[in-house]
Amino acid sequence: MANLAVEVAGVTLQNPIIPASGVFGYGREYERLFPLSKLGGIATKGTTGEPRPGNPSPRIAEAPAGMLNSVGLQNPGIDVFIERELPNLLKKGTVILANIAGSSIEECVMIAEKLDSTAVHMIELNISCPNVKKGGAAFGVHCESAESITAAVRKATKKPLVVKLSPNVTSIAEIARAVESAGADAVSLINTLLGMRINIETGRPILRNNVGGMSGPAVFPLAVRMVWQTAQAVSIPIIGMGGVSSGADAIEIMMAGASAVQVGAAIFTDPYAPIRIISEMDSWLNAHNIANVTDIIGSVIPW
Ligand code: SIN
Q: What separation in Å is there between the alpha carbon of 69 and the centre of ligand 1?
């Protein structure tokens, strides 16, 4: 078996595969299927200061080779997360990334301060949700606001800080540089791409929110491109995501420069996808006589 261990922001993951925020809840539904200890980590659903019911339905739409969501950060709020979900997650023997989101810098700071006194391993600051009216991607599409919120959350916590970036920008590399300069320990990318579907019989958008975030295999080449561009712009580690569905995809996005990989939409069609991907990565590494998965990080040889 190859050595699959990787390090992100000083935290060792036994393998690079992490179910992405929003597709895995708090792991309760999946622990009946496989031991969560097999995962490299778990990114939890975006947590806000207060409970949020999310956006009205329909909030999921199908697309060729992908899906759109406009969930709107439905979650029980930081206090319930810390009291009810986090203690259970911390017993699972894997790295926990608490994904946090807020409508204001103050809200994100307050959440980070509360998490700072817990045993959570990492904080993933979501500045890229496309489905909320305040906060979310509004922070992540300009260098100045991305830098300000990162700097404020950086001051609020000593936990390793990962900032989750939006692909709905002209240059994701510039945003990555801004959050690196503000103290981010790592970046994760890409969040979803803003999309829209219309029911041509009713003339209405399928999503009640009109627009939503596109994910799934269709976005994979965009994710690889953005990870590659970001890897050339920053020296902090990158967690790559966006349409990763197989071990080969995970290897590819790591060759582009990712140190770890989040798996999102693939879990909706195959709940075992993270476990399958770990095993497929191992087989590929063995077939290529590569002893350590870290050897492939950023190993692409550009023309
Ligand atoms: C959502 O809850 O709307 C999705 C979260 C995100 O895209 O960051």
A: 7
